[in-house]
Amino acid sequence: MSSRVHACEDTVGVAAPAGVVYGMLADAARWPVFLPSVVHVERLDFDGVQERLRMWELADEAGAGGAGGAGGVLGGRVGSWHTRRVLHPDARAVVFEQEDAAWPGSVTSGVWSVRPAGETECVLALRQERGLPVAAADGARREAEADVHRRLAQVRRAAQRWEQLDELLLSFEDRVRIEGPAELVYDFLYRIEDWPERVPHVEWASVREDVPGIQVASLDTCAAPGGRTVSTRAVRLCFPHAGRIVYKETLTPELIAAHSGEWSLLPDASGVTVVAAHQVMLRQEAVTPVLGAGTGLLEARDHVRAWLSRASTEALGLAKWHAESTVRRLR
Length: 331
Fold this sequence. Notes:
By secondary structure, this protein is an alpha+beta fold. It contains nine helices and 14 strands. It has two domains: 3-160, START domain (Alpha-D-Glucose-1,6-Bisphosphate, Chain A, domain 4); 167-330, START domain (Alpha-D-Glucose-1,6-Bisphosphate, Chain A, domain 4, 2-Layer Sandwich). Helix 6 (182-190) crosses helix 9. It is globular.
């Protein structure tokens, strides 16, 4: 089948320093909290300049293409692909090449570049090229052009918060030591559809797993202060052999603009340590409506951390009880 290389490029002005924007592009591991469509980024290899990544992305947010460029998502599902990137900090450019999930066997290549336009402004450009069957030419070109516009807009929205990022971003973890097998703990965390019967703050749960290891989980919980019901939805990537469940919320409470995290199991000779890690970006405009007049980001950080920590600590404690009580019954 004959193919043709399709190239598209666009630029956008960003009200942020060029170094800030380049840093955001280079730090792909934080894309789940910066870019709405990105679920998870796993760095497989890095030598300081070149890196190899595996990326997962949500189709509903991304449209036709992937976060490195185009072609990451397949019709309404979570897509994943491998990307090779070369970082050029002096030129403020990131060159990438990735498999095209929408067109197997095709490769998408391109470059992100940032040009200063003053101390606190810059011009962000994205160029991408991909080879596609001639029969798909018209539709593919429209998809690629729309995807470039979408990518640029996502990065611009995130970067233009640069002056508040230190206050908006929040990372923390909770952990518990369990005298029991990692398999029982992982099973508890994986079977989130059973949590309404096991975890007091979970009132209702619905889980869809069309592809093994990729769950879409919807929850109603009452862990928020005051006990009010909060609805959330998350994509969960389950890695049983590695003892990890990575997730990103796609429906978040009012105070939270983005929330990703991970349950990870660290086994040893006598048991396992379970870590619940959170990465959060706050929604600044929701602080006063939710917490009241006179409150700011400091109060919002304390509020959200206490809330999420209380929920994850309760789940960890019940996972501990589940594993240790099962072991006692078997003795």
